[in-house]
Amino acid sequence: MKILYIAPLPPPINGHSLVSKEFYDSISAKHNVEVINLRKQSLKEGMDSIQRIVEILKVLARTFFKKSKTDAVYFTISESLAGNLKDVLIYMICFNLLPKMYIHLHGGSLKRLLFDKYPWVFILNRFFIKRVGGVILSGDSHLEIFRDYVDRKKISIIPNFAQDYLFLSEKTIRRKFDQPSPIRLLFISNMIPLKGYLILLEGFLALKADLQKKYVLEFAGRFDTEEERSIFEEKIKGKKNIRYHGLIDDTKKKELFEKAHIFCLPTMFFEGQPISILEAYAAGCAVITTGQSGILDIFTDQVNGFQIRENSPESLTKILSDLLVEQKSLLKIALYNNRSAVEKYRVVTYTSNLKKVIGL
């Protein structure tokens, strides 16, 4: 079976490229998979350089030349205005293949930041999307984007996953919570303000000095510029219990999650479904995060962790203060999260469900 695979593949590694790679790896051995790689090097959205415009033109040309005799099209769609216009051009190039096309939305901002803001963009997209073979979403909260013009039977809900190497045994989780002193906080994501890394830092630094000493705060992820990285490193300079690990590989990620007690993602982004939260579940961590709709598909306050207010360092400071007298609840939450991940958020579950939807 010939599959036109239009999605970002690493490098760089982020949530979007990671899920795309796992699905690609699961089908490439048994099928003829023609890849149109949508990867981009910058963390910024849109066509922010001549280089990016050239990349898009190459994507469109490759799509045109590789589309012949295709049995199915798997296409992960964009949420930026420039990215969406690229998507529309791909729909046009593949117009006769739309009934065989399965579009996969990984984010949660398409309606609010694009369709609601630019009615003409919505009308243009609706014309093509109502003709596709299927729409794939990570959670129920995103149904509102498509349900008024796509038959519900054509919409599939497939949650994301945590990679197998991050799953810890119950024994290992119990051991790391045996004497959680200091309590280890972990942030792993792109180091962009909307992901909340500065909110986390500010909330942590607002703790009284004696309470700060009971925690270690670790950051890992990629900055878009060296200037942003330097500014952050200057903020944490001399603070022995705050560490920035830079861009990390799988070995380092596993090490950090194995030691972490609480994963923190105080995001202000319209999240699709953060893989990092599912990774935290697999590794037996409690989670502190905000109530973005895509997050609430997989997260319940006081069950999976603790929900804080968006853009509120004060909310985070209060939670961290309160947790020092409620440490016993952390192990219960961590074990529950791990069991949930084992049952629902495995790679094989994710790839099997995708294959079933596309008919592979």
Automatic annotation (TrEMBL):
Keywords: Transferase
Pfam families listed in its UniProt record: Glycos_transf_1
Superkingdom in the source lineage: Bacteria
A GO biological-process term: lipopolysaccharide biosynthetic process
Domain Glycosyl transferase family: 173-332
Transferase among keywords: yes
Transmembrane helix as UniProt keyword: no
InterPro entries (UniProt xref): Glyco_trans_1
GO MF, one example: glycosyltransferase activity
PANTHER family xref list: GLYCOSYLTRANSFERASE WBBK-RELATED
Name of protein: Glycosyl transferase family 1 domain-containing protein
Top-level taxonomy: Bacteria, Pseudomonadati, Spirochaetota, Spirochaetia, Leptospirales
